[in-house]
Specification:
alpha/beta, Rossmann fold, NAD(P)-bd_dom_sf, single chain, about 50% helix, 3-oxoacyl-ACP reductase family protein, SDR_fam, globular, oxidoreductase activity, 9 helices, SDR, seven-stranded parallel β-sheet
């Protein structure tokens, strides 16, 4: 049986770890060649490319700061030269800064906006004209269930993730008639390096609060990315799918 993403080329930002890494591998298993960028995570990125090539697909990796438009454009150009033009963009790169609302500095706010909203906006803009010219493409933006419910101590994170959902819906209106489908994924709590750093007490507390009694795995989020990237996602645009273990029901 033909792999659902056979012959496609996927770009994944923040692809060396967590949801990005799981999605890059899932895309390769579904038949796509995969280019990733990362923020100075060379060793992990190299092992990911090895995992992609072990599945019979081509891989490419490059360090790039998604808060800098010049680096976004450099990654796009290098990935296209190495693999070809982008058919599937997974806008995954992100970060978090935890501070009470009254203590958030302008520099912290600007960095969060740059990596999340500015980075996703201009990464999508970098690949969008080519998708339109070729008659189609998929743009998938990683948001968060916290955009839907909010949380104390991470006001900026919740705000930028909500902005990603708004960006997704607005671009979907403009891109849909041109054959480009734009959707978001709003994951719930997932076991990654970032969440493991919160400690076992955090994991136990959050797990107990969820109807499923556990936090998610990156592969459970990458399954949604493959859905939206492939034939099964052909009637989704402007959607926000939220695999979150029941943390938010809507």
């Amino acid at each position: 049986m033909t792999a659902p993403l056979q012959g496609k080329i996927a770009y994944v930002t923040g692809g060396s770890r967590g949801i990005g890494r799981a999605s890059a591998i899932a895309f390769a298993e579904a038949g796509a060649d995969v280019a990733i960028c990362h923020l100075d995570d060379e060793a992990e990125a190299r092992t990911l490319v090895q995992a992609v090539t072990a599945r019979g697909r081509r891989g490419f990796q490059m360090a790039a700061d998604m808060g800098e438009v010049a680096q976004i454009n450099a990654f796009t150009a290098a990935a296209e030269a190495a693999l070809g033009p982008c058919d599937i963009l997974l806008n995954n790169a992100g970060m978090n800064i935890r501070n009470p609302f009254g203590e958030i500095t302008e520099a912290e706010f600007d960095r969060m906006v740059a990596v999340h909203l500015k980075g996703m906006f201009f990464m999508a803009q970098a690949v969008y004209p080519g998708m339109v010219a070729r008659g189609g493409g998929r743009i998938i933006n990683i948001a968060s269930q916290l955009a839907l419910k909010g949380s104390p101590g991470i006001v900026t994170y919740c705000a930028v993730k909500a902005g990603i959902i708004g960006f997704t819906r607005a671009l979907a209106h403009e891109a849909g008639p041109r054959g480009v489908l734009v959707n978001a994924i709003a994951p719930g709590p997932v076991e990654t390096d970032l969440t493991r750093a919160r400690g076992p007490e955090w994991k136990a507390r959050i797990s107990a609060s969820l109807p499923l009694g556990r936090i998610g795995q990156p592969e459970e989020i990458s399954a949604t990315a493959v859905l939206l990237a492939g034939p099964g996602g052909s009637f989704y645009t402007g959607a926000c799918l939220s695999p979150n273990g029941g943390d938010v029901m809507h």
